[in-house]
Amino acid sequence: MATERTFSILKPDATRRNLTGAINAKIEASGLRIVAQKRIHMTTAQAETFYGVHSERGFFRELVTFMTSGPVVVQVLEGENAVAQYREVMGATNPANAAPGTIRKEFAESIEANSAHGSDSTENAAIEIAYFFSGCEIVG
Ligand code: GDP
Predict the structure, then answer these.
(1) Distance 111 CA to ligand 1 centre (A)
(2) Which residues are within 8 A (CB) of 92 and not within 5 positions of it... i.e. 6 or more apart?
(3) How far apart are CA 127 and CA 139, in angstroms?
(4) What is the pTM of this model?
(5) In this structure, are residues 10 and 115 in contact, taking their beta carbons and an 8 Å threshold?
(6) Using CA positions, which residue lies closest to atom 17 of ligand 1?
(7) Rounded distance, CA 96 to CA 86, Å?
(8) Could you report the per-residue pLDDT of 44-63, keeping only the tens digit for each?
């Protein structure tokens, strides 16, 4: 297994309920390291670009509105198999289907306000990391 990096967002439902630390505790307990992190308020243009792959889906506008409804915390996570590992720590998209102990099972409010984003491939992780972080902001 290789050391990888993945991109994470703690979504507006998580920052609103002051859950940043609780979610970071789960991330760190899983062995992943937070090697970059900042709190931002995404613009509509940034959210539209970030979720561009979903632009044809019925929930796209709602999703953009949600992601810009409050601050988010963007992160780079590093560890063995980080992409798959973080998807496991997050749990299924719909919290109703998420395994016990996962971020989404414990914290998500709904299929949309599901507390965390994690990249779905190493290729997308590299694109997403480069969209929000410059190289000197990532300290491994
Ligand atoms: P993920 O990779 O597990 O985050 O899931 P997707 O890539 O399929 O979806 C991206 C994000 O869109 C999810 O994390 C949710 O915030 C949102 N989303 C997914 N499915 C739905 C849906 O059916 N309705 C709404 N409102 N939002 C959804």
Answers:
(1) 6
(2) 98, 99, 102, 104
(3) 18
(4) 0.98
(5) yes
(6) 112
(7) 18
(8) 999 999 999 999 999 999 99
